Amino acid sequence: MASHGELRLIGENYDPGFIGMMKEDDGYGSSDDFEGALGNDQDTADNGRPPKKKKKFHRHNPHQIHELESFFKECPHPDEKQRRELSRRLALESKQIKFWFQNRRTQMKTQLERHENVFLKQENDKLRAENDLLRQAIASAICNNCGVPAVPDEISYEPSQLMIENSRLKDELNRARALTNKFLGRHLSSSSANPSPSPSQGLNSNVEVVVRRTGFCGLNNGSTSLPMGFEFGHGATMPLMNPSFAYEMPYDKSALVDVALAAMDELIKMAQMGNPLWIKGFGDGMETLNLEEYKRTFSSFIGMKPSGFTTEATRETAMVPLRGLALIDTLMDANRWAEMFPCMISRAVTIDVLSSGKGVTRDNALQLMEAEFQVLSPLVPIRQIQFIRFCKQHSDSVWAIVDVSINLSNAANALMFANCRRLPSGCVIQDMDNKYSKVTWVEHSEYDESTVHHLLRPLLSSGFGFGAQRWIATLRRQYSSLAQLMSPDIHGEDINTVGKKSMLKLAQRMAYNFTAGIGASSVNKWDKLNVGNVGEDVRVMTRKNVNDPGEPLGIVLSAATSVWMPITQQTLFDFLRNERMRNQWDILSSGRPMQAMFSVAKGPGQGNSVSILRGAAVNGSDTNMLILQETWSDACGALIVYAPVDASSIRVVMNGGDSSHVALLPSGFAILPGVQTDGPSMQPDIDENTSDGCILTVGFQILVSSVPTAKLTVESVETVNHLLTCTVEKIKAALSVTQLGSVE
Predict the structure, then answer these.
(1) Where is the Homeobox domain (predicted)?
(2) Is 738 exposed, middle or buried (0-12, 13-18, 19+ CB in 10 A)?
(3) pTM greater than 0.85 (yes/no)
(4) What are phi and psi for residue 102, nearest 5 degrees?
(5) Under CATH, to which class is 497-676+690-741 assigned?
(6) Would you identify the CATH topology of the domain 253-408+418-486?
(7) pLDDT tens digits along 198-224
């Protein structure tokens, strides 16, 4: 296996060649005769005498090489008699035999030293990572009993200082015992105390560390604070995300370090190796992982592939307009990471920070995380995965972040790999000279295909569901949006800069709530409903809102489904986002034409924007209800999300007011590209040149009762289901789609 330390050989030019052990020579059999090599070959022109003529080298023939190699295997140190016998048999001089064996032994020694250096470098990296973990644990630990730092100041680890510190702690323990005897009337024995492990115990690589999780915190760490929401750009506050479990779970930190190093090594090779590991399709087709070559190249360190699981693996490289450290900071923060990819991550949490890394570079940072990955369709189950995330800086301008699933399961958590596990996946980031970064993303996972509806299986098997292309497309779109958001001149009319940013924050919350409702994320506690007259392809859920000011109080009903549309993604997107055509499908608009009051661009292209829509006045009457709408489209999908908002509330937001108290329930559409699977090159259907179609997801969230304690009726469920069906039928009629695919 390649040395982890050798990864530092990646320079600023980021050589895409394979990083591994230095290639050994094939043997010394083809070496030259070094006769006279120890003589004085220097030019002696300085003393006036002509230089000596250098002797010619003599190359041994194949027969001589074979005989010498065979004898060397049996006896690497021949004596004088054996050298004479070889000289006679091979027609070589005795000193030629002598020099050959000397050179062969030297080469053998060099090879052994090289192997030893590689091994020692790997062990050194491992020890450094473990040392960082121990230092941070010692520096940040607090006493579980009294709540004060266990190590209040920097302590010297000299023997004399340790003895003094030990004596001080014994005195404190004796005083505590005396107070216990005096006030509680009982004796506190030394065995009842639970002292922290000694430094020598902490260095044991096999020790199991028990982490007590309470709420969001991982280790009971004095430096850990509760995040009160996360900021993206100028701060779009999202709900606090908590772990889904709160029980004591032992795990071996040293084992996690080993897994992280092995995963990083595999990611680097996966990112840089070409054919035969990756097979590129015709034209601009996607790269396909050669599974047989993968099995020959890598060994599994997280267990065998579960029975019945399908493999998906993709790789994508792109230039992104940001610096490497900015992306590192986003990816190593669970909340910012989830906010950067809201359509792919419905929930993310950092369970434990094993190492925070070195300074701002986050080198050797290691975290234990849990996340829910989603595709915007109710027909694809959420993938809940526990994994470790490891960040490594390989040079001044190159970083890598790798994720790999781990199974921390015990009797209370035996279904950790229920539907998916993530093999080493992540990205290699290289800073370029033009304020861009070159990002190579690798996604590799195994999942249970039987849990996915047949309509969505081609999308997932092609990699466009959870693959690298989707991560890269989202990353580029989000950073373009961020650049637009932070620009001092955001295009829009009749609204100041503060108001524009406040409106964008409100739209971001709207889109987040919509995607969380489509995937049934555990962030919002949805209860799934099974109603006899609702098709299996429709997911109906409900929840109660009691105290969230960002939503109407009462019972919220959510309904979503996915259907096949035999038109292109771009055609469908342009139709749904056009406010002049909205009355052709929006039942709630009552057939009234809509007009855009103003629009704020979120990136290049007309489709990436946040708009305020208003219904045209009918018979001289105006309406006090407006529609907030956000739309975007990229190579891997599109989104149209909208929600009715009160005119007075939106005026406050446009003037720069707080948008967190604006109550809204989002509805909308998610468009996933159709995939051609007939040939070796699988491409999404996103332009007008192909006509296979796309997948449309329709979702509604509706307030069915303003009383949180009210009971949900069957009529309410049927009403939402009817709204869903009528909307799809109206879209079909407006686009003259005669063969609209339905889910069976």
Answers:
(1) 51-111
(2) exposed
(3) no
(4) -60, -45
(5) alpha beta
(6) Alpha-D-Glucose-1,6-Bisphosphate; Chain A, domain 4 (3.30.530)
(7) 333 332 333 333 333 333 333 333 333
